[in-house]
User: Fold these one by one.
Assistant:
Number 1:
Amino acid sequence: MDTICPIDRKCASQISVLLHPPPPPQVQEYFEELISSRQCRGIKVKQNGEFGKGVYADLDFKEGELILKDPILVGIQHPSNKIDCLVCSFCFQFIGSIELQIGRKLYLQSLGVSANEACDNEGSSKDFCDTNSADEEDDCYVKECKKLGNCASSSSSNGKVTLPEALVQSLMNGELVLPHSKTFCLPSAIACPGGCGEAYYCSKKCAEADWKSSHSLLCTGKRSEALSREALAKFIQHANDTNDIFLLAAKAISFTILRYRKLKAAHLKGQNKHTDPVELDCLELSLLLEAWKPLSIGYKRKWWECISLPDDVDCSDETAFRMEIRDLAFTSLQLLKAAIFDQECEPLFSLEIYGNIIGMFELNNLDLVVASPVEDYFLYIDALPYSEKRTAEEITQSLLDALGDGYSVCCQGTAFYPLQSCMNHSCCPNARAFKREQDKDGQATIVALRPISEGEEITISYIEEDLPFEERQALLADYGFRCRCAKCIEEETT
Ligand SMILES: [Zn+2]
Ligand SMILES: [Zn+2]
Ligand SMILES: [Zn+2]
């Protein structure tokens, strides 16, 4: 396919350097640093020819033992899930209170159907918390809710009991305290310091970390460092309407730009003499490469080349389908470029790089899941001794009825985990991603499924491993490989 993006031609040589896998010693060094910073000394990443990389046990692990906690490099909560769960935009733990979680969700449910219609008149996103209202926090939630309500699926309010608006409001503003909710204390929600009214955090620490990592460029609020907040709003709207993977790609690009700026500032501080323009060009590329390193590690292919053909697309239309996907990515990239372009990081705005970043997420497909404390709360009430339960349920039962089956919806999104993404698949894995009771945020948690001895490769299953052989292989083809694990070799020959 010919390129349609002028930057692809202009920056061809820098792009090929960026997409060239880093030399093995550099990769090794990167992972060693990462592992030591995570204090999970029981593993190491090794490069192995045919399959690229693998994670190996450096110690013996017992069944059920924790192998790794892997923080998110970049991650997003699915926009549709924002209606169900209010979580920290950086670490993805639930925030606010049980009352706020329930009240906010009921409020959005009540907006459900009609809000969809209102959506058209309202135009695209404006800043809902923009108007000198930093002190009116309750109001801010309501506005945030209205905005989300615009995207609320109409099905969410079907067949459910609706509660009086005053009751819902009193849950949201903290006037009503539910029985036993203190057992499920959540960190209070801190609004984004940039004033977007969209991002909330569990702590100042998370707010600052997110700001430095990517949000300062992607915030739609007053203090945003984006070139154009209107352009940014258009980009976000386009991603919400088409594919939220673009939001994750935008985070990856912002993350790299901000790292680049930081590296450059540190470099310039360290030397006083004037650098000549040729040296400066080389310097900029080497700093960009360094900034890009965490993302350079992941296995990549262009999105429109690696995306699996949907069932409803005929094979004869495959080329047209792939062109359409490429054009969609190009549209998204142009919107993002208008919002956050940085001349010194120009190659990042090539379609080639954008396509490869999205393809990396597609091929690594790592789900972000955090269990809901609201579910735990209702289970706790249900398990109370009879008389206590009866008293509590006088208040909680109507809420549970109004929430319907959705009471237990967990936080869902997509994230890139640097170490987990190096773990290879097996249909008879020795480890799995499993959140224990104490794991309340978005980090990947990997535990041993059976005893693992030192030197053994640690494997997880990317799919439901109990499916029949052919179905497994078909699903794994979407990840771009044919499985040759012991189980598959055995089943293939029988
Ligand atoms: Zn947090
Ligand atoms: Zn913000
Ligand atoms: Zn297999």
Number 2:
Amino acid sequence: MKLSEAIMLGSLSVPQGSGNESLFSDNSRCALGAARLAMGLTGKGEVNAYRELTDLWPWIGNDEECPRCHREGTARAIIWHLNDVHSWPRERIASWVASIEPATPEPTEGRDPEQTHQELCVVEEKV
Ligand SMILES: [Zn+2]
């Protein structure tokens, strides 16, 4: 599943929230929290939460630019920023994510085969 699809799917279950707790809360979820919900990710703590997301979608570590204020950061940070700072609805964030995410679920361009293989192994161990 693409990240944009996971955000949309998770958004159907709970209202939008902000702040660190919205990565985990049963009551409200930010955009990334909604994606975690859709994918069944349950890691505790902020570090594990982001690691799980990056394992699934390595490209969220790539540099991007905020479509509203042009602040630069990783895609992961910009998604958080659109949710918590600009208060974009998750559907709108998902549309922006769809405009930057790779067409295929696992990006391979610009990576050597060995690195891609390692990332696939990490995903398989979690299943
Ligand atoms: Zn911004």
